[in-house]
Amino acid sequence: MSKAVQNDFSQGKMWRNILTQAIPLTIAQTVQVLYNIVDRIYLGHLPGASSLALTGVGLIFPIVTLVTAFCNLFGSGGAPLCSIARGAGDTDRAERIMGTTFTMLVASGAVLMVLCYLFKKPVLYLFGASDETYFYADAYLSVYLLGTPFVMIGVGMNGFINAQGFARIGMLTIVLGAVLNVILDPLFIFVFDLGVSGAAIATVLSQAVSCVWVMLFLTGKRAILKLKKEYLRPAWRLLGEIVSLGLAGFIMAATNCLVQITCNATLKIYGGDLYIGVMTVINSIRELLSLPINGITDGAKPVLGYNYGARRYDRVRSGITFMSVICIVITTLCWIALLIFPRQLFSMFSSDANLVDVGIPSMHLYFFGFFLMSLQFSGQAAFVALGKSKQAVFFSLLRKAVIVFPLTIVLPMIGGLGVNGVFLAEPISNLLGGVACFVTMICMIWPMLRRGEAEERKRAESKA
Length: 464
Description:
mainly alpha
């Protein structure tokens, strides 16, 4: 099969194309989450300091999320545009998008690393560190930041592997690094007795392996679209398009960063280090439960984008429908599992009985109506896949910046809610933001696709 027709998403069943992409991506993202979650599991059972170590690592979540935000700004903006260009048969444009994205990922990663080192101490205290937890947060972050360039390239450029239809290769990018992390973590933490620093060293080494794997593939013979030296100089017009589309993912991650900082600072006031530890565990559980939804939506994006570029509008509609239904079913099942096995899930991350006891009621509040979260993810994915950057940006801002952020501050002051108010902000935002995003997507995209179908029928009739 020639490269011109390889991985043609306009052929075959849409649901099969989506699942072919989504299953390896879900596996990859499951393993990706292990990078940080395995660290938290080991550190949560660290003799003599489990709760403080877990809380300290939890304090760096906003910085990890900020790095993710810049990966999204360029990687999540470039990969869908690359899919659309590939679907339209414009290989040159697709490879220029890839080269520009790579250069911006490297440059922004270097800047982020330097800035975080310069302002590390005041930033960690701003994020809710106490004198007891700062020691652990600083020990982890000082090493973790060294891996920033590896993360930017490994995560940001992996989307271009998936955009070409090589979802299994994209999966292996993450699997290789994460399996290595699982092996190295106990070695550095317990055998070499490096504790929190050991967990960070294992993570950085694992990220480096993933980065090398991505680069070898994108510059190798098997890739349909290659990362070429002549395209590394940023094309400013394309950069504008990349940033415009990636802004939605950037804002979603950046506002997550803002919410995490606000949550930690508010919990420090109303509940102290213990409840920051609770939020660390809840964030870890959320990452696990969000994996199938992320896998389905990320798997759907290149398929939807390719068919949109190929003017197969009927297939785009069926793909969005399949993606949305599957996401709702999965999140409903996850919510049921939370209600049935709360203690088992929470105890994975800590052997501190007090942390588990106070954490379970908070977890039930945080995840109430979890299935509504799928509406935000499905609507957002459809907007991004079809290049509708303004709508994607708006709904990213709406849920986190307009709804969650103020509620996290205000709710604890109402009726003596205290820490419960912090955990209630999430389900309220899922209801308001998720419904608004999904309904708008249906009302906007469905008529647009039907008009496109009508135009294609007229074009076919005129040729006949």
